[in-house]
Amino acid sequence: SMHCSCHPPRANFRVPLLTTRKPSLSFRVSGPRYAPRCEYSSEVAAESDDGTHVGETQELESLSESIKNAKNASDKPKNFFPKKGQDLEMVCESLAYKGLGLCKVVDTGFVVFCERALPGERLIARILKKKKGFAEAYKLKTLSVHDNAVEAPCEYFGECGGCKTQNLTYEAQLREKEQQVHDLIARLGKFGNSPLSGEPGSYMMPIVPCATPYAYRNKMEFSYGTKKWKSKGLFVSPKLEDVNESGPKLEFALGLHAPGRFDKIMPIHNCLLQHDVSNQVLKLVQDHGERHLEELPPYDVRTHEGFLKHLTIRSGRDCETGQLQLMVNFVTKGDKKDLLQPLVDQITTSFPQVVSIVNNVNSAVGPSSIVDKEHVLYGKAYITERLRGLVFEISANSFFQTNTSQAEVLYQKVEEQCALKGDGSEVLLDLFCGTGTIGLSMAKRVKHVYGYELVQEAVVDARRNAARNGIQNATFIQGDLNKLTDEFGKDFPRPDVVITDPNRPGMHIKLIKYLLQLRARRIVYISCNPATCARDLDLLCHTGDEGVESPTRYRLVHVQPVDMFPQTPHIECITTLELCE
Ligand SMILES: C[S@@+](CC[C@H](N)C(=O)[O-])C[C@H]1O[C@@H](n2cnc3c(N)ncnc32)[C@H](O)[C@@H]1O
Questions:
Q1: pLDDT for 350
Q2: Which of 211, 162, 203, 167 is nearest to 185 (CA)?
Q3: Is 37 in the pocket of ligand 1 (CB under 6 A)?
Q4: What distance in Å separates the CA atoms of residue 521 and residue 429, rounded to the nearest whole number?
Q5: Distance (Å) of CA 219 to CA 312, 334, 348
């Protein structure tokens, strides 16, 4: 799935107010049982149980921040209110939160957020929604291109919701992300402006680019369906798309969901974000499916008939030879694994790289991701991958960072920021630890690692990962960090360093208060949502906010954006706090 995964269980999903579309990728929301990371998270917001400490307020705030921030603040919009459905000429000034283009309507300066508009571009857009002081629109036509235009290399660009900024040079994508992190930390976090590059007195470090801006994903999830999406040209609006309804005839489709459509599939043959061999496997499965529609019918989300629901292709490396390894997972409605055997044989004869084929049976109606049963159809139940010198077994439903080479960079930066003594005397607390990868990669330099995580399966995987790598000084605890009780903290001694890596809503206020009285020497905060991160840093560093009465404060010393998801608006950053003595 291209969805972000760092979110609490499904029941908590909802679509945030500000998206103009429902999850625009097919990358299904359901996904694995627990969280892959945040890559495509912007489409889904998670809510804490008490509903108080959610990311949405920050999303709204950060949008209005971007408005205040817009250049030419002098052209105040006066008595101009666009109407829904109106087509207007505008100029895009910058990329705002979630990669929406921040545009100003020509002659009036009225602020409009427009999907796919790029800085410097003059365009015509149609108003979709009006909000207080701004509107949301979608692009109809480019009048003159942006400053850093490139030809988007993907044939599905503009319709597929996955890569939104392919037509911007990679350097410009990086600049926009770095700027967004800076603006949010400076304004929402109240840390003031800082020079963008790592100059003296600056907390901002230059963003770390991804060495491979394409083919970096080690996992893609495709969906089967009975209706093919038919292209209508660029810049599709979900609201205006009934032109192309295909007839009642059932078709075979395997690809990604069309933007805003749960029932229509874009038959993508080649996704530039995944490995070339993965694309060849996808093509084989598609060709086979077209020819065997009767024996292997795709699942129909309307009638709930059919068999094949999803296809996931994951890649890893042999831990000895370093050679590519692929896992193919067919998610089916019924438990009829024999039906898949001819297809399995065809895959394994054509692709020696495929070392694992599994069938996850998921009989639930609707998008539930609960797996009733897993059959191994070929080879092993897992593939392997190396990260920071450790070996990880990745099974069909285990979480693993989706950009392996950049995860290597991210974790290395995190380790640097922890500034461990390395003499085995310190205690490390790894909050929101997932399958434990970050803490485990530092285990040999500390006395003990304590990992804390909500999802039980992830905790089990973390313990297995520790065992596989012969690590004995790591303890993983299951628990909900949004519901701290007085018992919290009794399982581990006072840590020297805290790593926290929450999902998009950021940390609960109770956890922040707890950290303030815990007084660890350092807190390294990894975030996939700089807006909620900025809010939390403000609470940890500045007195007098939101009833957080504590004499302990931290000092922000370092902000390091790392680009984990090129071609998309998703931003990852590492921030470092030092305890003020
Ligand atoms: C961004 S991921 C971090 C994963 C891990 N640090 C890594 O790098 O692989 C966030 C993790 O927080 C977990 N999580 C979400 N809500 C939680 C909660 N309320 N309490 C504890 N863990 C939670 C998710 O299951 C997910 O594994």
A1: 98
A2: 203
A3: yes
A4: 12
A5: 7, 24, 19
Q: Is 482 in the pocket of ligand 1 (CB under 6 A)?
A: yes
- Residues 159 and 238 sit within 8 Å (Cβ to Cβ): no
Among residues 528, 533, 541, 573, which one is catalytic?
Answer: 528
Q: Measuring from atom 4 of ligand 1, which residue has the nearest CA?
A: 434
The answer, yes or no, to whether any atom of ligand 1 lies below 6 A from the CB of 378, is: no
- The position carrying tokens 């390091």 is 560
Length of the chain: 581
Give me the pLDDT at residue 2, please: 45
492 is in an annotated binding site: no
Distance 6 CA to ligand 1 centre (A): 6
The reply to whether ligand 1 has any atom less than 6 angstroms from the CB of 431 is: no
Give yes or no: 528 in active site: yes
Q: Which residues of the chain have pLDDT under 50?
A: 1-57, 71-74, 233-244
In the three-class reduction of DSSP (H, G, I as helix; E, B as strand; rest coil), residue 139 is classed as strand
pLDDT for residue 581: 79
Structure tokens belonging to residue 320: 């000895």
Secondary structure (DSSP) of 140-204: EEEEE--TTB-----TTBTTBSS-S-TTB-HHHHHHHHHHHHHHHHHHTS------SSS-TT--B
pLDDT at 133: 82
CA distance 40 to 300: 25
Q: Residue 263, annotated ligand binder?
A: no
* CB distance 97 to ligand 1 below 6 Å: no
CATH 2.40.50.1070 is held by the domain 220-387: yes
What is the ipTM, given to two decimal places?
0.99
Edge to edge, the sheet with strand 448-453 lists: 474-478, 448-453, 427-431, 497-500, 522-527, 572-579, 554-562
Residues of each domain in the chain carrying CATH 2.40.50.1070: 220-387
Q: With CA atoms as reference, report the closest residue to 475 among 423, 433, 422.
A: 433
**Cα 481 to ligand 1 centre (Å):** 9
CATH 2.40.50.140 domain residues, the chain: 75-144
Distance 351 CA to ligand 1 centre (A): 35
Structure tokens at 138: 């979608």
- DSSP string for residues in 210-256: PS-SSS-BSEEEEEEESSB-----SS--GGG-GGG---S----EEEE
CATH architecture observed for domain 75-144: Beta Barrel (2.40)
Quote the ligand 1 centre to 450 CA distance (angstroms).
14
pLDDT at 64: 62
Q: What is the pLDDT of residue 32?
A: 29
Would you give the end-to-end CA distance of the chain in angstroms? Answer: 45
CA separation for the pair 94, 113 (Å, rounded): 10
Mutation test residue for ligand 1: of 6, 399, 408, the one with most atoms within 8 Å of CB: 6
Residue to substitute in 49, 53, 413, 453 for testing ligand 1 pocket (most ligand atoms within 8 angstroms of CB): 453
